[in-house]
Amino acid sequence: MLNLYLSRTSLIVLFSFSLLITGCAESHSSLAEDDLKDLSAYAVGLNVSNRFDYYPLIEVKIPQSHNPELHQDVLEIAMVIDTLAMKYIEQTGGIAENGTFMNPRESGEKGAQIYKELKVEARLTDLLTKAKAKAGSSDKDLMKVTEYIVQNQFLSEIPYFNQQKLTQRPLSVLSLELLLLENKICAVLLNSLLVNKEQQ
Question: Where are the domains of the chain?
Fold first, then answer.
Protein backbone atom coordinates (compact mmCIF):
# COMPACT_ATOMS: atom_id res chain seq x y z
CA MET A 1 0.00 0.00 0.00
CA LEU A 2 2.83 2.38 0.89
CA ASN A 3 4.59 1.61 -2.40
CA LEU A 4 1.38 2.43 -4.28
CA TYR A 5 1.09 5.70 -2.40
CA LEU A 6 4.71 6.61 -3.09
CA SER A 7 4.27 5.90 -6.80
CA ARG A 8 1.19 8.12 -6.98
CA THR A 9 2.97 10.85 -5.09
CA SER A 10 6.02 10.55 -7.33
CA LEU A 11 3.88 11.28 -10.38
CA ILE A 12 2.47 14.40 -8.74
CA VAL A 13 5.94 15.51 -7.67
CA LEU A 14 7.40 15.02 -11.16
CA PHE A 15 4.52 16.90 -12.78
CA SER A 16 4.60 19.73 -10.33
CA PHE A 17 8.36 20.14 -10.23
CA SER A 18 8.28 20.44 -14.02
CA LEU A 19 6.23 23.58 -13.40
CA LEU A 20 8.96 24.94 -11.17
CA ILE A 21 11.66 24.22 -13.74
CA THR A 22 9.85 25.67 -16.74
CA GLY A 23 8.65 28.68 -14.75
CA CYS A 24 5.22 28.58 -16.32
CA ALA A 25 3.73 29.92 -13.11
CA GLU A 26 5.73 33.13 -13.00
CA SER A 27 2.72 35.44 -13.33
CA HIS A 28 -1.06 35.60 -13.22
CA SER A 29 -1.29 35.88 -16.98
CA SER A 30 0.71 32.71 -17.67
CA LEU A 31 -1.93 30.43 -16.17
CA ALA A 32 -5.63 30.32 -16.94
CA GLU A 33 -8.28 29.97 -14.24
CA ASP A 34 -8.76 26.26 -15.04
CA ASP A 35 -5.01 25.66 -14.80
CA LEU A 36 -4.90 27.30 -11.40
CA LYS A 37 -7.86 25.22 -10.25
CA ASP A 38 -6.08 22.06 -11.40
CA LEU A 39 -2.94 23.06 -9.53
CA SER A 40 -4.93 23.84 -6.41
CA ALA A 41 -6.59 20.41 -6.64
CA TYR A 42 -3.12 18.82 -6.70
CA ALA A 43 -2.22 20.92 -3.66
CA VAL A 44 -5.30 19.74 -1.76
CA GLY A 45 -4.53 16.11 -2.59
CA LEU A 46 -0.91 16.52 -1.58
CA ASN A 47 -1.86 18.16 1.69
CA VAL A 48 -4.18 15.27 2.54
CA SER A 49 -1.44 12.75 1.71
CA ASN A 50 1.16 14.56 3.80
CA ARG A 51 -1.06 14.93 6.82
CA PHE A 52 -2.86 11.58 6.80
CA ASP A 53 -0.29 9.26 5.22
CA TYR A 54 3.16 10.58 6.08
CA TYR A 55 2.66 12.32 9.42
CA PRO A 56 1.08 9.36 11.29
CA LEU A 57 3.80 6.99 10.03
CA ILE A 58 6.58 9.38 10.96
CA GLU A 59 5.18 10.26 14.38
CA VAL A 60 4.86 6.57 15.32
CA LYS A 61 8.43 5.78 14.27
CA ILE A 62 10.29 8.79 15.70
CA PRO A 63 10.30 7.53 19.33
CA GLN A 64 11.85 4.26 18.11
CA SER A 65 14.51 5.92 15.93
CA HIS A 66 18.27 5.98 16.53
CA ASN A 67 18.17 9.80 16.66
CA PRO A 68 14.68 10.93 17.71
CA GLU A 69 15.63 14.54 18.45
CA LEU A 70 17.07 15.03 14.96
CA HIS A 71 14.08 13.39 13.32
CA GLN A 72 11.72 15.55 15.36
CA ASP A 73 13.59 18.69 14.23
CA VAL A 74 13.30 17.64 10.59
CA LEU A 75 9.58 16.94 11.03
CA GLU A 76 9.17 20.41 12.53
CA ILE A 77 10.90 21.89 9.47
CA ALA A 78 8.25 20.19 7.34
CA MET A 79 5.55 21.53 9.66
CA VAL A 80 6.81 25.13 9.35
CA ILE A 81 6.48 24.79 5.57
CA ASP A 82 3.06 23.19 5.99
CA THR A 83 1.85 26.05 8.22
CA LEU A 84 2.87 28.61 5.60
CA ALA A 85 1.07 26.66 2.88
CA MET A 86 -2.07 26.42 5.01
CA LYS A 87 -2.06 30.17 5.68
CA TYR A 88 -1.86 30.78 1.94
CA ILE A 89 -4.76 28.39 1.35
CA GLU A 90 -6.80 30.26 3.96
CA GLN A 91 -6.13 33.53 2.12
CA THR A 92 -7.57 32.05 -1.09
CA GLY A 93 -10.85 31.60 0.78
CA GLY A 94 -10.17 28.00 1.75
CA ILE A 95 -11.15 24.84 -0.09
CA ALA A 96 -14.37 24.59 -2.09
CA GLU A 97 -16.65 21.53 -2.24
CA ASN A 98 -15.05 20.44 -5.51
CA GLY A 99 -11.64 20.15 -3.82
CA THR A 100 -10.07 23.30 -5.27
CA PHE A 101 -9.24 26.66 -3.73
CA MET A 102 -12.05 29.19 -3.59
CA ASN A 103 -10.01 31.99 -5.19
CA PRO A 104 -6.98 30.39 -6.89
CA ARG A 105 -5.90 33.69 -8.51
CA GLU A 106 -5.51 35.47 -5.16
CA SER A 107 -2.03 36.98 -4.71
CA GLY A 108 -0.42 40.27 -3.74
CA GLU A 109 1.26 41.62 -0.64
CA LYS A 110 -0.55 39.03 1.48
CA GLY A 111 1.99 36.40 0.44
CA ALA A 112 5.01 38.35 1.64
CA GLN A 113 3.18 39.66 4.71
CA ILE A 114 2.21 36.17 5.94
CA TYR A 115 5.73 34.91 5.28
CA LYS A 116 7.11 37.69 7.47
CA GLU A 117 4.49 37.30 10.23
CA LEU A 118 5.22 33.59 10.58
CA LYS A 119 8.97 34.34 10.92
CA VAL A 120 9.68 31.55 8.44
CA GLU A 121 13.36 32.33 7.92
CA ALA A 122 14.16 32.57 11.64
CA ARG A 123 12.29 29.40 12.50
CA LEU A 124 13.86 27.38 9.69
CA THR A 125 17.32 28.73 10.52
CA ASP A 126 16.94 27.68 14.15
CA LEU A 127 15.60 24.21 13.33
CA LEU A 128 18.21 23.54 10.65
CA THR A 129 21.03 24.60 13.01
CA LYS A 130 19.74 22.27 15.71
CA ALA A 131 19.29 19.39 13.25
CA LYS A 132 22.82 19.75 11.84
CA ALA A 133 24.27 19.71 15.37
CA LYS A 134 22.49 16.43 16.15
CA ALA A 135 23.11 14.63 12.84
CA GLY A 136 25.40 11.62 12.73
CA SER A 137 27.06 9.73 9.89
CA SER A 138 23.94 7.62 9.28
CA ASP A 139 21.87 10.78 8.80
CA LYS A 140 23.84 12.28 5.90
CA ASP A 141 21.24 11.52 3.20
CA LEU A 142 18.43 13.01 5.27
CA MET A 143 20.46 16.12 6.09
CA LYS A 144 21.68 16.58 2.52
CA VAL A 145 18.12 16.86 1.19
CA THR A 146 16.77 18.82 4.15
CA GLU A 147 19.60 21.35 4.14
CA TYR A 148 19.44 21.78 0.37
CA ILE A 149 15.71 22.52 0.47
CA VAL A 150 15.88 24.91 3.40
CA GLN A 151 18.96 26.78 2.22
CA ASN A 152 18.10 27.12 -1.46
CA GLN A 153 14.38 27.68 -1.15
CA PHE A 154 14.30 29.91 1.94
CA LEU A 155 17.65 31.05 3.37
CA SER A 156 20.12 31.76 0.57
CA GLU A 157 21.04 35.29 -0.51
CA ILE A 158 18.56 34.96 -3.37
CA PRO A 159 16.13 32.27 -2.17
CA TYR A 160 13.56 30.66 -4.44
CA PHE A 161 10.80 32.15 -2.28
CA ASN A 162 11.97 35.73 -2.62
CA GLN A 163 9.98 38.94 -2.17
CA GLN A 164 8.98 39.09 -5.83
CA LYS A 165 7.61 35.54 -5.95
CA LEU A 166 5.81 35.89 -2.63
CA THR A 167 4.16 39.09 -3.82
CA GLN A 168 3.36 38.29 -7.44
CA ARG A 169 2.59 34.58 -7.66
CA PRO A 170 -0.91 33.25 -7.02
CA LEU A 171 -1.15 31.90 -3.49
CA SER A 172 -2.52 28.66 -4.94
CA VAL A 173 0.76 28.13 -6.84
CA LEU A 174 2.86 29.04 -3.81
CA SER A 175 0.83 26.59 -1.71
CA LEU A 176 1.47 23.75 -4.14
CA GLU A 177 5.19 24.50 -4.30
CA LEU A 178 5.43 24.57 -0.51
CA LEU A 179 3.48 21.33 -0.14
CA LEU A 180 5.81 19.66 -2.65
CA LEU A 181 8.80 20.65 -0.54
CA GLU A 182 7.07 19.41 2.61
CA ASN A 183 6.25 16.14 0.82
CA LYS A 184 9.88 15.67 -0.23
CA ILE A 185 11.18 16.24 3.31
CA CYS A 186 8.59 13.83 4.73
CA ALA A 187 9.49 11.17 2.17
CA VAL A 188 13.22 11.40 2.94
CA LEU A 189 12.53 11.50 6.68
CA LEU A 190 10.35 8.40 6.56
CA ASN A 191 12.93 6.61 4.44
CA SER A 192 15.63 7.50 6.98
CA LEU A 193 13.49 6.12 9.80
CA LEU A 194 12.81 2.88 7.92
CA VAL A 195 16.39 2.33 6.70
CA ASN A 196 17.98 3.00 10.07
CA LYS A 197 15.40 0.81 11.79
CA GLU A 198 16.39 -2.09 9.52
CA GLN A 199 20.06 -1.53 10.30
CA GLN A 200 19.60 -1.58 14.08
Answer: 33-195
